[in-house]
Amino acid sequence: MAYNLLKGKRGIISGALDENSIAWKVAEKAHEEGATFVLTNAPIAMRMGEINKLAEKTGSQIIPADATSVDDLTKLFTESQEILGGKIDFVLHSIGMSLNIRKKLPYTDLNYEFYQKGLDVSALSFHKMLAVAHKLDAINEWGSVVALTYMAAQRTYPFYTDMADIKAMLESIARSFGYHYGTQKKVRINTVSQSPTKTTAGNGIKGFGDFFDYADAIAPLGNASAEDCANYCITLFSDLTKMVTMQNLFHDGGYSTTGVSMEVLNKMGIEG
Q1: pLDDT tens-digit profile of 181-216?
Q2: Which residues make Cβ contacts (< 8 Å) with residue 5, sequence separation at least 6?
Q3: Which of 148, 179, 259, 270 has the highest CB neighbour number within 10 Å of its CB?
Q4: Phi and psi, residue 125, nearest 5°
Q5: DSSP state letter for 229
């Protein structure tokens, strides 16, 4: 059921790779809720994905952009306003990449060139995106920017290696830029810490399937799906949350505040 929560709003959605990705679900939900938007991704990711299918489904245009390039981001925000007919109301940053994880390198023996690349793609891109939008005055007052993160930024998950550090930086950028953008332009900036989700990126993490099941057994409500995450993002883009900013918001079925569950104890042979 749609509620027209984003009727008349314009947006930019990054990171939609295929129908399993959270960004893809966000685009579908934003379209259902009345928004118009531009889709963007890195040129190489666009060749690998199915973004043209999503663009056709949602009546959207695609602007390829390397999120680490200030020039590309300037072009993205400038052309998006031209295409959509005005300033932007919402932005989704759904960009993450770790070559160290992809190469299965342990945290204690990282490749630092890979590390720096991951920082640039997954965290500094968020600062660059916000800085470009701020300089161009491209986002309307009370606009909303959301970046996707994970709670490994607060707690240690050995298999998440350098991405845990990178997500911590991402969340810090949301707080710091949120202050400046909020006081100057009334733009709100938040991060959403999602459950383990069976996306293309998630499935690339070593041991992800086992951890997905573990988190599902801990969380009282179970793991939140990509579609549920999209619904949450839509509320953050809407006017219903106009006073929420600089927050890291957990969307994980209660996992982040559950110490242990009886289901996990029972699996260990411990009876409650």
Answers
A1: 999 999 999 999 999 998 766 555 666 788 899 999
A2: 33, 34, 234, 235, 237, 238, 240
A3: 148
A4: -60, -30
A5: H
